[in-house]
Amino acid sequence: MHKVTVCRKAHFNAAHRLYNPEWSDDQNSEVFGKCSNPHYHGHNYDLIVKVSGYPDPQTGYVVDMKKLKDIIHEEVTSRFDHKNLNLDTEEFRRVNPTAENIAVVIWNLIRDQIDQELDLKVILFETERNFVEYPA
Ligand code: NI
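A: This is the predicted complex of the input protein with nickel (II) ion.
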């Protein structure tokens, strides 16, 4: 038997502001630039969720795509789509919503919903050219 990776794409729009509350406004804009704009800005986030494991001998599935789709919808899309991450979500009330931190939060939310013997990786695109992968 060979391991196979099953991938599912998802998309959400969200606003954020990169900001370290321990720093002055000047320090924040020096480090985060336009991303620290006090009035927030939006991104079209693209998410790829990768689940790896051995296909089940009965079904031939690593994971049921329909279930994976529902998990992503419930845990990620419905939670973050059209939200202001800093103001509207519990997850980023005290966590700076960088692409790195968003990817880790998403991984944790999905991880609990997927069989423990399966490997999970998430790739999050913040722009067409900038994306992060977790775990590294
Ligand atoms: Ni940004």
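The helical segments are 25-32, 65-80, 85-88, 99-111. The mean pLDDT is 97.
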